[in-house]
TrEMBL record:
PANTHER family: OS07G0274300 PROTEIN, OS10G0561000 PROTEIN. It comes from the Eukaryota. This is RRM domain-containing protein.
Length: 304
């Protein structure tokens, strides 16, 4: 689809706009340590991955700097406990965090779930935060937004998949450096044939009414998954079409470097209403596809 492909780093930055805004507030306005704030936001993203939805959005909504810094101090205490660093003068309570997630959480949680938490936070830190908070990439995306006419992106970033049939998963997951593939997903149309005994020409082309669709951007969602745990395009198509009916029009995936797996992409649905069903009232949705996690979020197009 002409004009649909974007630089994969730009795509990831757009996906995590809210996290980057909060990071800038913490570092630039509140004077916090940049590397430490990457760890803090990695922890909060991990909270969201274990079903504490909209954690970052709700933290960001507070206007008072003291409240924001209170959440930061609690997050740092959680990270210290994960690293087995105890602060003798501090108790185990996490009152702000507990209030936000509407359930009791204290530092003992990070002792009983230490391995799971370390693995999850470290994965998000390495595969998400080290990318979305990289100054070079942030400046590059800002420059692209300021000079849209000079930023026509080729299909080397994302490529379209419009697929009617399941592709072999072993080939799918090992072909990150292959040429772009474009296969059409058959449109859902309702063919009207003449009734028996009709005088209409039975050899005429059947009438298939066109469906008026919303602009592509309004029917799109970002998707991400963890490095080292790829999900094939065929599995994504199969999962969403089985769960929501034949809903997908296009799946676009990052073209990863040789030896690397895609980490993010974009779904385009046939109908914008499917997005509401996918999100189910949340800002993000998490799915388990063949034992691997996929996160989905509303697509935010860049405005030139």
């Amino acid at each position: 689809m002409a004009g649909s492909s974007r630089d994969p780093h730009e795509l990831m930055l757009l996906f995590h706009t809210q996290e980057r805004d909060l990071y800038c507030r913490l570092v630039r306005q509140l004077g916090q340590n940049p590397e430490r704030m990457k760890q803090v936001i990695a922890l909060w993203l991990w909270f969201e991955s274990i079903d504490h939805y909209e954690f970052i959005q709700r933290v960001s909504s507070y206007k008072g700097d003291d409240v924001i810094l209170g959440f930061v101090r609690e997050a740092e205490a959680c990270l210290d406990r994960l690293m087995d660093q105890r602060e003798q003068t501090r108790g185990d309570e996490l009152p702000l965090t507990s209030y936000l997630i509407a359930e009791k959480m204290d530092l003992r949680f990070f002792e009983s779930h230490r391995d799971e938490a370390i693995k999850g936070v470290r994965s998000i830190f390495d595969n998400v935060c080290q990318i979305i908070f990289d100054d070079v990439l942030v400046e590059r995306a800002a420059e692209a937004a300021n000079h849209p006419d000079d930023h026509h992106l080729s299909t080397s970033g994302l490529h379209d998949i419009k697929q009617p049939a399941r592709e072999g998963s072993s080939q799918e997951e090992g072909s990150a450096s292959s040429a772009a593939v474009a296969v059409s997903l058959p449109a859902q149309t309702h063919t009207v044939l003449p009734p028996r005994g009709s005088t209409l020409n039975p050899m005429a082309l059947p009438w298939s009414p066109e469906i008026n669709r919303s602009p592509e951007d309004l029917r799109s969602m970002f998707i991400t998954f963890s490095r080292g745990y790829p999900i094939s395009r065929a599995d994504i198509v199969e999962f969403f079409n089985e769960r929501y009916g034949r809903c997908l029009e296009t799946v676009m995936m990052e073209r990863a470097s040789p030896g690397q797996q895609p980490m993010y992409g974009r779904l385009v649905f046939r109908n914008a209403s499917t997005i509401a069903r996918v999100l189910n009232g949340q800002r993000t949705a998490k799915f388990l596809i063949n034992g691997r996690h996929l996160w989905a979020r509303m697509y935010t197009p860049r405005r030139g």
